[in-house]
Give the backbone structure.
Amino acid sequence: MIARVIVDIATSELDKIFDYKIGESGALIGSRVIVPFGKFKTEGFVISTAENSSYPEEKLKSIIRVVDEVPALTSDNLELANHLHETYHVSMASVLRLFLPTEMRTGKVRKKTANYASLSSVDFDDILSSLKKGADKQRAVLTFLKENGKTKCSVLNETFSPSSVTALKNKGYIVVSEERIVRTPYKGIQFSEKRVTLNSEQENAVKVCLESDKPTLIKGVTGSGKTEVYLRLIESVISGGKTAIMLVPEISLTPQTFSRLRARFGDKCAILHSGLSAGEKFDEWWRLRSGEAVIAIGARSAIFAPLENLGLIIIDEEHDQSYESESSPRYVTDEVAYIRAKLSGAKLVMGSATPKIESYKKALDGVYSLAEMKGRVNGKPLPEMIISDMKDEVRHGNISPFSVALKQELKNTLDKGNQAIIFLNRRGYSQKVICRECDYVAKCLNCDVSLHYHRAEDLLKCHFCGSQYHMLSACPECGSVSINYTGTGTQKVVQELQDLFPTAKILRMDNDTTQTKESHFNILKDFGEKKADILVGTQMIAKGHDFPSVTLVGILDADMSLYFSDYRSGERTFQLITQVAGRSGRADDKGKVVLQTYSPQNTVLQTAIRYDYERFYKREIAIRQASYFPPFSDILRIMVESEDDAVAISTLKKVFESAREVYNDNRQHFIYFDKMKSPLKRIKNKYRYQVLARIKGNNDEIKGEFYKIANENLSKKVLCYLEINPSSMS
Ligand code: ADP
Ligand code: ZN
Ligand code: ZN
């Protein structure tokens, strides 16, 4: 028997498939294997086996060894990998990397084991009496084991002495065994179960999902109890002996949702996301692979969870941008989910209060089933929205970041002992540094972007590459010392709030305060336990959280995202406002939202404050149709990035030439086609160019051609990739 092996060479984007003799190794399809490769050894995946090779027998080498006891890739995963390989025209090697945690591939983590000691079956009193008089420590060890049962050897060694433990072992009085230790994430979470009776809208949603043979979109207002619906669906699927995947947006939602799942399903669920330590990731992954856990919950990459017999995929907050991957191979999670669900006959359920325009269209067109949940579980109306016109405020002499109404509502909220959330748009929260004399703006040396001032560290930071710079004492252009910050930062907001409400406890959640592994979790936990009165934060606090005592949400700069030259900026703004507002009034007390804006008459804001998704949708879809934007077209962007500007330019030319051939053959399908510098001309020292096209309809052929062109021009010196309807056009 021979094995066909994809050799996993990180630097190469090309597929190298080689035949190896299976020999003694016993490698199966899906196994990770170590094989000889030139003068070296390397890792690979067995993707298929065959009786014979077309290579001469004597030239074939043998697999050296198999890495894992069980093949790391399930047959389902291999099938999915093949589909992705074909859809995205990327190498099988890079697709397969998606299916294993990175740390595992680099061999840096292994199963963790420890030695445990326990009393041997000899009679305890006999042992004690047979010990010498001076052997007090040994006696103490035995007594300890009798009282506490099996104990880690390291604990015994430390508490008593290694020599006494060894002596007892040698005499056969205690036995030492090696056992696997499971590294469990989020040990600090308390899992409290709240068993509820579903209301009729929830019942209906469950029914639609289970009975439909199409994917289902659950459109449910914030606080309508979508998570409870997901839990019931999972319950139903796993009681039928199948497995489930539940995807949640990156970072913020995971611990809270995880704790709800843990409360209901215990060890049957495993969590996969980038915030875990390598060891935790490894162990959770293997619990899923071995079937010990049957529910995978995590951010987008959990769509690749090693589950067999899959019955259900849930995508919560399906409109969230974190479902788009930004590293190679770039995939769109709902596309992968769709393929995976189809291949394994699983149900696909997507939920949101503000579905993507594309998704809602599919639901209206009957491509998806639609389940609506229009009421909040607590029977209360959605929070009242109050608009503060900030132009008016300034005219009346209010130059603080908070409107008069917001200050008043904050006071009322704190007086009642309730909590408030203050939200700042991420893009606007930071402070740029500008020279008042000559308009010089401090920029990053590696990126074509302005730097942001971080007050706590008194440093300038680049938000793209992370570079740090000293704060300027004078303008490098004109020497003037009148240097100014613009914009309001989260830190500044906290400071001003503290001045207004000296006794209030305020927590801040943004990129700066969430650098360590569990800091997200801890901030949210503290706020949930009412250890603070106000939570100030950026996008991270917008999502999914369920804090019963929050009755006020302040949105400081509601129009910030309206002015990006992106066809989706209206949609983004609507979603953001609805999501943040949805954090208010989720329990017994009515919620309020104060929305600060400079353009109170803007249609997007006007529909958002009425929670009128339908009206917003009708207007938005009409605009998209009239102007041929997605979902009535696809935007294709081939990015060319290189540290060497000349190489980037010459590659761009080649890419453009090849793409132009496709364009010339298909002109009737193109709305737009050109090449140019990217809006951000340089990031992380790489020069960026693009070929940009907009094509009509759902044209897989043209997409395929573009994927091919991108891959053909990829090399060690240039990064070249295709994006379809990217969420950021920067
Ligand atoms: P959504 O995800 O739609 O925003 P959640 O699922 O977080 O809403 O539900 C909001 C709150 O209501 C949660 O605390 C949840 O436990 C509770 N809840 C959900 N369904 C019910 C129900 N049928 N009866 C009572 N409480 C419920
Ligand atoms: Zn200057
Ligand atoms: Zn930079």
Remarks:
- The chain has 23 helices and 30 strands.
- The chain has a mean pLDDT of 87.
- The pocket of adenosine-5'-diphosphate (ligand 1) is lined by residues 194, 196-199, 202, 220, 222-228, 377, 546, 586 (CB under 6 Å).
